[in-house]
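Aim 2 progress update. The chain analyzed this quarter is reproduced below.
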Amino acid sequence: MIIYDYLASPTLLKHVNKKAEMIYVGKKGGDHTLPQDGINELIVEKAKTGMTVTRLKGGDPFIFGRGGEEAEVLIKAQIPFEIVPGVTSAIAAPAYAGIPLTHRDYTATLAFITGHEDPAKDKSNIDWASLAKGIGTLVFFMGVKNLPHIKEQLLKHGMAADTPVALVRWGTTTQQVTVAGTLENIVEKVKAAGLKAPAIIVVGQVVKLREKMKWFELKPLMGKKIVVTRSREQASDLVKRLSDLGADCLECPTIEVVPPKDWTPLDSAIENLSSYDWIVFTSVNGVKFFFNRLFENGKDVRVLHHIKTAAIGPVTAQRLRDFGLNSDIIPKSFRAESIIEAFKDQDIKGRKILLPRAEEARPILPVELTEMGADVDEITTYCTIQAGENAETMITQLNEGSIDMVTFTSSSTVKNFKALLPENQDLKKLMQGVTIASIGPITTDTAKELGFDVEITADVFTIPGLCEAVEKYYLGLKT
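Predicted structure tokens:
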């Protein structure tokens, strides 16, 4: 059981066991899914059923996170628990904004304060006089709405009007935005920027250091919303690389890689491996499904001792090395045509070649190898089918104009992406302002045939090559 908050990281939620039950109890700006008492009761109720319950919060549970109150309820109900400390947003957000909360040249004191105190209360629990004159750095939680009140109290109790102030919204995420000013003008600056919760407010001389220390918001893809259409299983590398460059990735896998409908042809090829001279692997998936089936048939890599191998691309070659085999041929270019060129130096006339690959693969490779005199067995080792996870969200965001880029890593991702779009909508209008990035010329050709304008085609047809091309595009280094 996962009981999670509004600010709980979606990245963490990806690790949840698929069989686990998930309940959202988020609170934001007065919109509470459950009041705190209801959350307390829910935790106890689920724990009493024998479930292992994770109460997932953003930041640290004991820093303005109501964790102490929830722990007291568990103690009263005699339910055992453990606390996993987090990194509070009061520390994380300023660090990502380039603001060190302490610095020997500026301050040796630091205070965390709730900014959510009701200004209409008869008496404040906050000692404003001590904060205004006795603490070097102040960090206010949940204080955007009450910023005018915070400013008023600090000025009223003696803090200088030119004291630096910064607000960091959605700190540590690709949506991070920072607005800086002084105590005197920060309310107007925040209003002009349209900054809203959730945000951390930092007050103190250390804010001056941001101009030379800011780093996160300088990333080349910062805040760009990029759709990743690759299969869920294979998307992680692309998502990580783009996210590391500052992109906000929306995973919308348009394809799912599945086993073939009938294993008989591959099983037969595996049983007769002694008759083959070469195996040509055109993708990581081909390697994966071939070896999985090899092992399921009770065999191991020793049955391949006499066979030469060819692999398209360094990633496919590396996956082959994971099984203890070095490729005899790794073409310079990562496409089927390059394999054909590489085989021109090989005597393959009369040689038997096994080609385990996708059901929908392009025919050029077996045709050309056959014309060179080889006996080619093209065996369906896996299939790609249409997927549509997050498709509704993606289409909504396309209509809103909030998506900056869509990435395609194969022709099948293009075809299935197009199939997910509403038939009654004009493609040009829907994709207006959206940049299309393709992993290589074959994928680009497919995209153009289907009506997409492709602005980026990677020079190196790999995930790192695609990411490099995207980065250059946003840096203005278009090729």
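The mean pLDDT is 91. The first helix runs from residue 10 to 13. These observations will guide the mutagenesis experiments scheduled for the next reporting period.
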